Amino acid sequence: MIPPDHPRYRSLVTRELLAESARKGIVSLEGLTAHGRGESFDYFIGERTTESALLAERTAAALLLAACEPVISVNGNTAALAAREIAALQKACGAKVEVNLFHRTEERVNLIETLLRSAGADVFYGRAERLLPLSHDRAWCRREGMFAADVILVPLEDGDRCEALVGMGKTVIAIDLNPLSRTARSATLTIVDELTRALPNITDACKTLSGAERGRLLAALDNNYHLSEAIREMTKRLSHALD
Ligand code: PTJ
Question: Which of 48, 67, 85, 111 would give a disulfide with 199, using CB separation of 3.0 to 4.6 Å?
């Protein structure tokens, strides 16, 4: 039992949720280490949404709303941490929600789809095929889903697939706390923020952005700006820690 007055209460509760999800088979054991890496980068940005991340979240909303075939890709960590937030974003932007796993088994796909449905998401399912140019199992997706997407949101992605999706001509929005990762550097737009803070901000922006604001955000999209602002923020905090 974690006492609510523990200074790291939220972080400890989240870890417990992920550990429990790993025991159920939703999160992979590797997903637990990925979360630890994310936590360390979150420390460096002060565990809050920075100004540049919020701008990236609003730009992500503009991209999703402008898309013809938007898709939200969901893996084990994303489902465990944010199934309800995924369902809310789907309602706000009309994207398909499709499960795509690195450590893929049919059992995990089914568990994650069931969790998403119980949170209110309308999960895109059907026969998966090896359609993406990758040698690992993230290549499996649906022809009418991810394969046909023009804009795809990929929280906690690995660099290989992000590069492959961009290479296929897709607009890729990544959510990744590590601004140095291959994913962050190869995506069209990277949101350097924690998943459960980023998703509600994108959903809010989907509901409130005017047509003119959307146009301005799309015209100003510059991923290098978001990455360098995130690195600047982290460097600033680290150097203040020495004061
Ligand atoms: O469920 P599966 O089988 O598809 O596996 C999923 C994992 C997460 C294991 C897989 O995609 C993976 O190995 O990811 P990576 O390459 O470790 O990348 C995950 C990235 O997400 C890292 O750069 C982390 O810093 C970042 N990250 C981790 N947790 C969060 C996060 N970013 C935002 N919010 C988080 N909560």
Answer: 85
